[in-house]
Amino acid sequence: MQWQDVLADKSLxxxxxxxxxxxxxxxxxxxASLLHSLIQGKLALLLGSTLTQGSVFTELAIQTSNxxxxxxxxxxxxxxxxxxxxxxxxxxxxEICVExxxxxxxxxxxxxxxxLFIDAGANEVWLVTESGDISIYNQNGQTDKSFFDIQIxxxxxxx
Length: 159
What we know:
Layout: H1 3-8, E1 17-21, E2 27-31, H2 34-50, E3 54-58, E4 62-64, E5 67-69, E6 73-77, H3 78-84, E7 96-100, H4 107-119, E8 124-128, E9 134-138, E10 141-143
Parallel strand pairs: 7-8
Antiparallel strand pairs: 1-2, 3-6, 4-5, 6-7, 8-9, 9-10
């Protein structure tokens, strides 16, 4: 299966799952909870209000060495957007990719996704737990702070 086939398949629309396509063309789905969606929204707001020379993406389809992967939230510079805006799926990752760790995700799986996004061109990959803790990774591994002008290590989940 190709990504265009996934987009065109009416039976896959309106599913309460994030859909990804692995390197064999098989669909992989991850369920999203209310908490997952809340964190996704808070991260999108944070990135959009802090980094003004680009745009926030939610559920951006990115070609990786292991098929199409879809970070929960991403941020791309204006330059990145100009390079990719006509693509059906992004042929490379934007500068920041963020994955919210669901209970069904294993640590090994999440670290593999970090590497896939880094290899696809991301400068940073953030892993966020459902309690709001943030771990930031770059090409050298885990780091204490973002290269971008964002001082954060936890998302406030209080209403």
